[in-house]
Design a protein that fits this description.
single chain, 324 residues, alpha+beta, Immunoglobulin-like, 3 domains, six-stranded mixed sheet, 7 helices, 48% helix, globular
Length: 324
């Protein structure tokens, strides 16, 4: 029993390292190393536990599934085209810090805020409609306490603005975030009554998917009930509540295949279909172990793709919303 506990402690530490590395800018192959080690440790521990009582095995699987799901949620939070651009810059002897938004929902425009050390520092914001053949509009930022603030103009759902901040002190200026600009996408307001069930179901769908996949390594491989619940939860979260949220945000229930190339819609469709296939496989007398394992792995890969990539985008030339 002590040896099993030690194995799991080591595995948890390795997963913690993997989560920490996921938030860095290291090469992907470096970030993958602790995940591979964690996977090896997990299956080694499970193999050892096969000589122990089944209750320890199931408990360990649930703990590991929770850790993997939480790690994936953190990774999703820290990556993707909607995550704010955070950082700081130096101008003269002063430091300015910022957290610049890349998504905005609801009415009105987003506030662009830069924290400053000295009121003698002032700023301007440069912005224009994304991909539009037009010059940048320059607007002065307003000093409010220890912050420079400017509100970008509201855009219709799926509209995007491209912007950057210029911080100025006497004859010196610094551009934030640097040589690149920031693209912010606008969306409609999504009621909490639709958003919370969607997020809840997608999180627990991932949890059940991970738990079902781990069950394929158990001595009993009792995956039928777990597969059923995984399929139900993912279908409800992705194919029912997902389109409802999409409708509120961008005015369309579905923008994936065959009507578009929205990556979030398409990856949802992929893992839901695969889990339905895995559930169907249980009707046969043959083992569904490898079908279930494949479904869990594919779902994990789909979840690791940053949310909202290749999503809805308003074409200012035609006035149409496109995807992909």
């Amino acid at each position: 029993m002590i040896r099993i506990i030690i194995f799991w402690i080591v595995t948890i530490v390795i997963i913690g390292m993997a989560v920490a590395l996921s938030a860095t800018e290291l090469p992907l192959i470096i970030k993958a190393i602790p995940w591979v080690l964690a996977l090896i440790m997990t299956f080694s521990t499970v193999q050892y536990q096969r000589t122990s009582k089944a209750i320890y095995e199931k408990t360990a699987f649930w703990i590991l599934a929770i850790l993997i799901t939480a790690s994936t949620a953190v990774y999703q939070r820290l990556t993707g085209p909607t995550h704010p651009v955070d950082g700081s810059a130096e101008i003269a002897s002063y430091t300015v810090s910022y957290s610049l938004p890349r998504t905005h929902g609801g009415e009105g425009g987003p506030d662009i805020v830069v924290l400053i050390d000295d009121p003698s520092v002032h700023g301007k914001i440069h912005y224009k409609r994304y991909k539009a053949d037009e010059p940048f509009i320059i607007t002065d930022m307003t000093l409010s306490g220890d912050s420079l603030i400017c509100t970008l103009p509201h855009q219709p759902p799926a509209g995007k603005l491209e912007y950057y901040v210029e911080v100025i002190h006497e004859d010196e200026s610094v551009f934030i975030p640097g040589p690149e600009t920031i693209v912010i996408r606008f969306k409609g307001k999504v009621p909490l009554g639709a958003l919370i069930p969607h997020v809840f179901l997608m999180f627990f769908g991932m949890l059940w998917s991970n738990r079902t996949g781990l069950e394929t390594a158990s001595t009993t491989c009792a995956t039928k009930s777990l597969t059923l619940w995984t399929t139900i939860i993912l279908f409800a979260g992705g194919m029912i509540m997902g389109p409802v949220v999409q409708k509120y945000a961008f005015g369309a229930f579905w923008t994936g295949v065959p009507w578009g190339w929205d990556l979030t819609d398409n990856k949802t469709l992929i893992f839901v279909v695969i889990w339905i296939a895995a559930l169907w496989r249980h009707r046969s007398s043959r083992s569904a172990r490898y079908f279930v394992l494949a479904a869990a792995i594919i779902t994990f890969v789909m979840y690791m793709i940053p949310h909202s990539m290749m999503g809805s985008e308003l074409d200012y030339t035609t006035g149409e919303v496109k995807t992909g």
